[in-house]
From TrEMBL:
UniProt keyword annotation of Iron present: yes
EC numbers, comma separated: 1.-.-.-
Entries under InterPro entries matching the protein: AtsK-like (IPR051323), TauD-like_sf (IPR042098), TauD/TfdA-like (IPR003819)
Keywords for this protein: Dioxygenase, Iron, Metal-binding, Oxidoreductase
Family that this chain belongs to: Belongs to the TfdA dioxygenase family.
Gene Ontology cellular-component annotations: cytoplasm
Protein known as: Putative dioxygenase
Pfam families: TauD
Originating species: Amycolatopsis japonica
Length: 300
């Protein structure tokens, strides 16, 4: 890709995913050429890191809004007070560290996610982001052909963090909020990116069952496919710093918050950009089975 000028640069962090953007200030109003440049970089590198940014809540929303309309914070979890589009990602409210793509249990999950650092532990607390298109390309041809035919049910109603009998009162209350409205949606296991045409494995933690297979068979298939997503070659490890912003393409990545910072506080704010309904290689779109998420993100 071509830089806008000599002051703008995109530096790859790994060979398959991740880049740092220099010379673009997310706190400023971006012109159309800069938005197009960042969008092209996002499609190529899947996850972009901006360091030493001077953003508040309004600035983060303004930056995310350059890439489309914003969703509400979450279909069930409360937002930051007075900011309906901002979700607090706070270690004091739980540490559900699991590989996932944001909000895939609804019909049209977010197009992109932004995370902004507010409180950073002195060590640990990284976010891992995986390239699911590279994972798809890594599949042996017979397995790739098999994955092309599959569809999976995604839901928020499962033991996503801990077994129910291990939850304390606060954790049990948070889980009740998370599943206060139940969602079930069938997505293609292989999603076609609506802009680049890349194929990516569209699974992650909310994918609980392969349509037409038993729970046991589904677990085995999903575990096998997921192992390609999380190969080290396909993952970038983002170490959080103060005043840092990360933008990632939620249509073709998964991410994981590493719980390796003891009992220290860690706080990020998340703002997500509304997305379209996923489509498989056969052109068939996703299908909602339970739960209306139009209050969270209207379907275009």
């Amino acid at each position: 890709m071509t830089a806008l000028n000599t002051q703008v640069e995109v530096r790859k962090i790994t060979g398959r995913i991740g880049a740092q953007v220099l010379g673009v200030d997310p706190a400023k109003e971006l012109d159309a050429a800069t938005v197009a440049f960042v969008t092209e970089a996002l499609h190529e590198h899947k996850a972009l890191v901006f360091r030493d940014v001077n953003l508040d809540d309004a600035g983060q929303q303004r930056f995310a809004g350059h890439f489309g309309g914003l969703t509400k914070a979450h279909p069930t979890v409360p937002s930051v007070d007075g900011e309906p589009a901002i979700l607090p990602v706070d270690s004091e409210q739980g540490r559900a560290n699991q590989w996932h793509t944001d909000v895939t249990f609804v019909l049209n999950p977010p197009k992109a996610s932004t995370l902004r650092s507010l409180v950073v532990p002195p060590y640990g607390g990284e976010t891992l982001i995986a390239n699911s298109a590279a994972a798809y390309r890594d599949l042996p041809e017979p397995l790739r052909a098999f994955a092309d035919t599959l569809r999976a049910e995604h839901t928020n109603d499962y033991d996503y963090a801990k077994a129910p009998e291990t939850l304390d009162d606060a954790e049990r209350e948070r889980r009740e909020v998370f599943v206060s409205q139940k969602f079930r949606t069938v997505h293609p296991v292989v999603r076609v990116h609506p802009v680049t045409g890349e194929r990516g494995l569209y699974i992650g933690g909310f994918a609980q069952r392969i349509i037409g297979l038993s729970k046991g068979e589904s677990r085995d298939i999903l575990r096998l496919l997921q192992s390609y997503v999380t190969r080290p070659e396909n993952v970038v490890r983002v170490s959080w710093e103060p005043n840092q912003l990360v933008l990632f393409d939620n249509r073709i990545t998964q991410h994981y918050a590493v719980d390796n910072y003891d009992d220290l506080p860690r706080r990020l704010n998340r703002v997500t950009v509304a997305g379209d309904v996923p489509v498989g290689i056969d052109g068939v779109p996703s299908e909602s089975l339970e739960g209306d998420a139009s209050h969270y993100s209207p379907v275009a």
